[in-house]
Design a protein that fits this description.
Elements lengths: L1 H14 L6 E5 L11 E7 L17 E7 L2 E7 L10 H14 L3 E10 L9 E8 L28 H14 L3 E8 L8 H9 L4 E3 L3 H9 L3 E11 L10 H25 L1
Parallel strand pairs: 1-4, 1-5, 5-9, 6-7, 7-8
Antiparallel strand pairs: 2-3, 3-4, 5-8, 6-9
Helix pairs in contact: 1-2, 2-5, 3-6
Length: 270
């Protein structure tokens, strides 16, 4: 693991010697935040040693380096998912690379199914906690002590100060921000109605197929994390409609300007 990481990091440093302090991972249909960056370098995943390659529509598949809000940042336009056939460790590999490049704070976005009956399509939910028991933990296997402890604490996966700052930004911009618990599942099927109800009973407000493994690895390495879900569909609903990936992408695109405004000001405040 360490040898692979070092090779990836060396390749990136040769192409882009600056050290980003903020990392950003953009979920399905949420890639336009990079338009707010002063882009200095783009590297396709296919060129990076030991990197997986994203296979999902809405994920463009490159690391983008530059500046935003006076900070050096690196953005992942497209993430990796367990359901694509990658291991949990591979899914979270880019987060380890970000940390070794210098990233101290990680901002995540995702498209999620809403289970809180107060939510509607297009809402934004700050993730205050997560349930990751339905996915494979990326730390299973031999622990690399140079990356983090064998048994990392997960009592505060999402940084409370960053949440408080984002809530203040939302208030200033007039953007309603919910807070809730995100449940991570493997996918690629959308959940059955019974599964949505079960997850909600267990305490989840939204569900998705990403994020939790990235967060576990980030916290393992001491990176502070903030995340927002865009509610792109409603799992607990009365009408007999079905959910499609195209509808998820459309809902994410509609909500994206709000998400971009929050992330842009949050980077400035870090």
């Amino acid at each position: 693991m360490m040898k692979r990481l070092e090779e990836t990091v060396q390749y990136i440093r040769a192409a882009y010697p600056a050290s980003p302090v903020v990392g950003i991972v953009l979920g399905s249909g949420l890639g336009n935040l990079v338009g707010e960056m002063t882009v200095e370098k783009e590297i396709p995943y296919s060129e990076l040693p030991h990197f997986p390659v994203s296979t999902v529509e809405g994920h463009s598949g490159k690391m983008i380096f530059g500046e935003m809000g006076g900070k050096k940042v690196v953005a992942m336009a497209g993430r990796f998912h367990f359901y694509e056939g990658y291991s949990a460790s591979e899914v979270a590999y880019p987060i380890r690379v970000m940390k070794l490049l210098g990233v101290q704070t990680l901002l995540l976005s995702n498209a999620a199914g809403g289970m809180n009956t107060d939510f509607k399509v297009g809402d934004l939910m700050i993730i205050r906690d997560q349930i990751s028991l339905f996915t494979v933990n990326p730390l299973i296997g031999k622990n690399e002590s140079g990356l983090g402890p064998r048994f990392p604490d997960m009592s505060e996966p999402y940084n409370k100060k960053l949440i408080e700052t984002a809530v203040g930004i939302g208030g200033q911009l007039g953007i309603e921000l919910h807070q809730g618990v995100y449940a991570g599942v493997t996918g690629p099927t959308f959940e059955t109605r019974a599964e949505y109800k079960l997850l909600h009973i267990l305490g989840a407000d939204a569900v998705g197929m990403s994020t939790v493994q990235e967060v576990i690895v980030a916290r393992h390495m001491g990176v502070e994390v903030f995340a927002i879900s865009v509610i792109t569909d409603l799992g607990i609903r009365e009408e007999e409609n079905i959910i499609t990936h195209q509808e998820v992408l459309e809902a994410a695109a509609a909500a994206e300007p709000k998400l971009t405004a929050i992330f842009k000001q949050l980077v400035q405040a870090i």
